[in-house]
C-alpha cells in the first residue's frame, strides 16, 4: 500500500459535529491481502417488499483500504443492500458489524455516526451554493454571535480539497458551474472531512468524459491509500475491474460470488451478471449462448 498521507489539519476551533480522528490518522492500515478485522460486515441481510425479496440472506464485508465492486443487472438488489448500510432502508433480518462489533443502523444518522457516508449518483449537492457551503451543508460553522463563519468554512474546504484535488480553485463559484469531476471531488470532500471510514459510491463515473473519469479514479485510489474502505456500485465492468480489489456479483437478490480481481476476468464477471452462476458452474451450452448474445 502507498504510504499514508498526513492527517488533515482541522481549523483552530474544531467544528462540533465531527468526532474521532481525521481520515487517514491512526497509523498504517492493513491491506486487503493482509486480512484483519473488516471495517464493516453485513451478515445474512434480507429485505422484502410485498413478499418479494429484493435481498435474500446476503453477506458481504469490507476491509480498510479496500474497494469492493458491487455489480449486477437492474433489480439485482445491490442498491437495496447499500441502502441498508446507509440507513435509508431497514433490513427485515440480519446484522451489521462495524469493526467487529454489532451496530444497529436504522437511519442515516446511525450510519454517519459509524463513519459511513454515501456519494449518490446525483451527488446530493445544492447547485446554487459554492463548495464550502456544500461541504458544511446542514453542519454549518458559526461565530460566537451565531453568524455563519464563512472564513473558517472556506479555510477548511481549501485544506481538504488540497488533499483530494490540488488544482481545484473555484471555491466561490456555485457548484452547478463545476465540471462533473470537480463536483464529485466536492461530494467526496464533504464525506472525508466528516471522518468517513466507509464510502458507498453509486455510479461515480456515470455520464463523465474520459478526463473526468480518470480524475475520479485517481480520487478513489487516493482514498484507498488513506485506509478508507469503498463499496463501488457500477455498471461499468472496466471501472469495477480496474479499481476493485474484490468483486461481488448480485443476481435476483443474492450474492452469486465474491472474488478477488486477480482470480477472474471481465468476461467471467459479465457471465455471472447475466447467468447468475459462478464460472465453474456454467455449462458449455450456456457459454455458447452467452457468446451469441455478445
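Sequence proposed for the structure above (294 residues):
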Amino acid at each position: 500500500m502507498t504510504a499514508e498521507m498526513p492527517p488533515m489539519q482541522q481549523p483552530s476551533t474544531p467544528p462540533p459535529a465531527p468526532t474521532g480522528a481525521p481520515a487517514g490518522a491512526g497509523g498504517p492500515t492493513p491491506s486487503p491481502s493482509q486480512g484483519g478485522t473488516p471495517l464493516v460486515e453485513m451478515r445474512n441481510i434480507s429485505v422484502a417488499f410485498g413478499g418479494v425479496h429484493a435481498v435474500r440472506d446476503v453477506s458481504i464485508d469490507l476491509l480498510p483500504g479496500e474497494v469492493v465492486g458491487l455489480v449486477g443487472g437492474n433489480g439485482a438488489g445491490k442498491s437495496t443492500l447499500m441502502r441498508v448500510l446507509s440507513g435509508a432502508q431497514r433490513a427485515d433480518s440480519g446484522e451489521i458489524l462495524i469493526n467487529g462489533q454489532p451496530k444497529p443502523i436504522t437511519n442515516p444518522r446511525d450510519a454517519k455516526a459509524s463513519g459511513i457516508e454515501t456519494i449518490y449518483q446525483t451527488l446530493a449537492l445544492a447547485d446554487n451554493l459554492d463548495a464550502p457551503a456544500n461541504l458544511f451543508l446542514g453542519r454549518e460553522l458559526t461565530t460566537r454571535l451565531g453568524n455563519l463563519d464563512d472564513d473558517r468554512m472556506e479555510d477548511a474546504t481549501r485544506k481538504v480539497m488540497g488533499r483530494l484535488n490540488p488544482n481545484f480553485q473555484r471555491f466561490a463559484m456555485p457548484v452547478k458551474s463545476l465540471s462533473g469531476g470537480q463536483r464529485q471531488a466536492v461530494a467526496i470532500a464533504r464525506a472525508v472531512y466528516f471522518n468517513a471510514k466507509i464510502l458507498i459510491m453509486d455510479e461515480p463515473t456515470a455520464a463523465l468524459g474520459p478526463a473526468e473519469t480518470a480524475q475520479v479514479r485517481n480520487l478513489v485510489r487516493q482514498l484507498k491509500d488513506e485506509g478508507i474502505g469503498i463499496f463501488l456500485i457500477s455498471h461499468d465492468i472496466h471501472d469495477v475491474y480496474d479499481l476493485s480489489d474484490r468483486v461481488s456479483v448480485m443476481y435476483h437478490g443474492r450474492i452469486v460470488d465474491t472474488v478477488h480481481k486477480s482470480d477472474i476476468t471481465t468476461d467471467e464477471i459479465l457471465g455471472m451478471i447475466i447467468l447468475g452462476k459462478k464460472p465453474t458452474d456454467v455449462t458449455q451450452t450456456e457459454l455458447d449462448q452467452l457468446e451469441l448474445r455478445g
